[in-house]
């Protein structure tokens, strides 16, 4: 992400589903950028518990409990609630009302053609048994974004179609009321494609796949995760040339090692032969231990006072409601729904 392109007038909306604590993939994809963004512009961070329920009905307690867990991760990485507004999605009912109006601006066929929705339906094996809330989530996400008139939304490359559909809804709404009321937004894809591979070499790090490393991981868990990381299965002897492409250890070094020149030299050495995987893994473990130790320590400190964290969320949610209520009032007035 080019932070030089961010101005104080920009409004950022981003967030995470509350289906589990956050991991290194989230850190690379968005968390570290959010810490920087809060110094440059207005930022709203959404704890997407309502979205989590679109495919977790029946797992209410998991979704609820992870609101606190994700909030702890936010605070632990350095997100400051005095600079970023952190709020709970389900406690801002204005978002649901906006979504109900936006659903009249999009067809079922268009929702089904959304590439992100199509892929996620396939991943979950829904076939035609698609929860209606899941299928219509693009309208709900449009409500989340437009309620705060966000000008930018940091997303992974696979989520760009969702932002495109938000802008379609914005244009259709504005055309229907004859004024430029809602603001189009821009998808911003962070470096590394906003996606870190799993430690097993699979394309996506995911807790459900068992290939993720939590931000709260202990030193032993970090050590074991690095030890298990996929490298080059054909690199059987130290003297053998090795493949860099698809090598998870190098993917992680690219993401977490600030010494770009040193990593480039390691890649050259590895391709030529004479560099063992253990050397690479030792370097990576040192980097991850140094990164996660202060995050884990701060998280433990915040976790000792959950009431204070919940109070912070209550305050942030109240602030978010005030902003969303203004947009909702404007939308209803433009539609002629201001009866008295």
UniProtKB/TrEMBL annotation:
A molecular function (GO) term: tryptophan-tRNA ligase activity
EC number(s) given by UniProt: 6.1.1.2
Question: What InterPro entries does this protein map onto?
Answer: aa-tRNA-synth_Ic, Rossmann-like_a/b/a_fold, Trp-tRNA-ligase, Trp-tRNA_synthetase
KW Nucleotide-binding (keyword) present: yes
Q: Name one GO biological process term.
A: tryptophanyl-tRNA aminoacylation
A single Gene Ontology CC term: cytosol
Identify the enzyme class: ligase
Q: Which NCBIfam families match?
A: trpS (TIGR00233)
Family matches, as PANTHER family:
TRYPTOPHAN--TRNA LIGASE, MITOCHONDRIAL (PTHR43766)
The family classification in the record reads: Belongs to the class-I aminoacyl-tRNA synthetase family.
Please identify the protein, giving its name as recorded.
Tryptophan--tRNA ligase
**What's the source species for this entry?**
Pseudogulbenkiania subflava DSM 22618
């Amino acid at each position: 992400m080019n932070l030089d392109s961010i101005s104080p007038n920009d409004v950022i909306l981003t967030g995470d589903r509350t289906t589990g604590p956050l991991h290194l993939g989230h850190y690379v994809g968005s968390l570290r950028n959010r810490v920087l963004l809060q110094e440059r512009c207005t930022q709203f961070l959404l704890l997407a518990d309502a979205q989590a329920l679109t495919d977790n009905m029946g797992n209410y307690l998991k979704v609820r409990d992870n609101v606190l867990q994700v909030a702890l991760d936010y605070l632990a990485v350095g997100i400051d609630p005095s600079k970023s507004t952190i709020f709970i999605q389900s406690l801002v009912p204005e978002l649901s009302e906006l979504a109900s109006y936006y659903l009249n601006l999009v067809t079922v066929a268009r929702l089904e053609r959304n590439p992100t929705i199509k892929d996620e339906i396939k991943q979950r094996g829904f076939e035609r048994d698609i929860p209606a809330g899941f299928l219509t989530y693009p309208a709900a996400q449009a409500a989340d974004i437009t309620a705060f008139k966000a000008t930018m939304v940091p997303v992974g490359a696979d989520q760009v179609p969702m932002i495109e559909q938000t802008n379609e809804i914005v244009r259709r709404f504005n055309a229907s009321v004859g004024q430029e009321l809602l603001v189009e937004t821009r998808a911003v894809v962070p470096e590394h494609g906003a996606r870190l591979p799993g430690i097993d070499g699979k394309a996506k790090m995911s807790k459900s796949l068992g290939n993720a490393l939590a931000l709260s991981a202990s030193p032993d868990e970090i050590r074991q995760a690095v030890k298990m990381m996929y490298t080059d299965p054909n690199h059987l002897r130290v003297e053998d040339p090795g493949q860099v492409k698809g090598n998870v250890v190098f993917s992680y070094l690219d993401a977490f090692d600030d010494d770009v020149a040193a990593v480039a030299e390691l890649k050259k050495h590895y391709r030529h032969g004479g560099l063992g995987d253990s050397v690479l893994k030792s370097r990576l473990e040192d980097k991850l231990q140094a990164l996660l130790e202060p995050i884990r320590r701060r998280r433990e400190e915040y976790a000792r006072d959950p009431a204070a964290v919940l109070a912070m969320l209550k305050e942030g949610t109240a602030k978010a409601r005030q902003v969303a209520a203004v947009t909702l009032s404007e939308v209803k007035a433009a539609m002629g729904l201001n009866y008295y």
